[in-house]
Specification:
single chain; 269 residues; alpha/beta; five-stranded mixed β-sheet; 14 strands; globular
């Protein structure tokens, strides 16, 4: 019989334990609508996307299982604020939730049909322009979001779409002439264009200066929210240290810093 010193046995045991996934001890329910490549849907269910995958993997390292739920964002927000579900993938910045750590950043841009020559030059260039946006979405946590709120009651200035397919609805509205300019997050719009096989029909007319922080947020009325937010922060730190989060960002084309304004996918225009 081969003799193994106790210290070697302890070392082997530690290495084996480190290689094993942490068994899930509890489940957290996080909801959102389709917002690919951040929240992606297949067959009526959330199937992945950068925010979903990063959150799920980070919490998984802490023994917490994520149950994704497909809901319109406004409904997901209402239920989270009421405490009937646990949280939201990629919520607005000032939504009143307990925020998790920033996972990456998204830039929103203005899109027109290829027949248009309009370009975004600042808020003043939106004067007299009807703009298509998604209700309850946030675009820059700054002047643009304030502009949308201040014009919410003016149907000649802002056209709102809602629901789990609001992005596709807005793209179709633009092509149908319902409004001349659409505001959408850059990578989301590129994904929509590809899915609609509409390359060459849209034009990027300029982007917002401020970016939107991607994260998950938890219900302020759930006593476990603080624990989940802290666990997510620890899990994200682990993913950062291992390089897994950087690989996820690279695979989905997501910016790691707010100042990175370079296009991260091949232009479709």
């Amino acid at each position: 019989m081969t003799y193994c010193p106790p210290r070697i046995i302890l070392l082997l045991s530690t290495l084996l334990t480190a290689c094993l996934p942490v068994a899930a001890k509890e489940t957290v329910r996080l909801a959102s609508d389709e917002w690919c490549p951040y929240v992606c849907v297949r067959d009526g269910r959330i199937s992945g996307g950068f925010v979903v995958e990063a959150t799920t993997r980070a919490l998984g390292t802490m023994g917490i299982r994520v149950e994704p739920m497909l809901l319109p964002l406004n409904r997901a927000m209402r239920q989270t604020l009421a405490g009937t579900i646990d949280g939201v993938f990629a919520p607005p910045e000032d939504a009143g939730l307990r925020p998790g750590p920033v996972l990456g950043y998204s830039r929103a841009c203005f899109f027109t049909s290829t027949r248009s020559s309009w370009s975004y030059r600042g808020l003043w260039s939106l004067k007299g322009v009807r703009l298509g946006v998604i209700g309850d979405y946030e675009y820059d946590n700054g002047d643009m979001d304030a502009f949308i709120v201040s014009h919410r009651g003016n149907r000649h200035a802002i056209d709102f779409s809602y629901g789990t397919n609001a992005g596709t609805t807005n793209a179709k509205k633009l092509l149908g002439g319902r409004f001349p300019v659409l505001l959408e997050h850059e990578l989301v719009m590129y994904k929509l264009i590809s899915e609609m096989k509409a390359e060459g029909r849209f034009r990027n007319a300029g982007c917002l200066e401020n970016t939107f922080a991607l994260r998950a947020g938890f219900s302020p009325h759930n006593k476990r929210s603080g624990k989940w937010a802290a666990a997510l922060a620890q899990g994200v730190a682990r993913l950062e240290k291992s390089g897994e989060l950087a690989r996820l960002r690279e695979r989905h084309g997501v910016a790691a810093t707010p100042g990175d304004g370079k296009p991260r996918v091949q232009s479709l225009f």
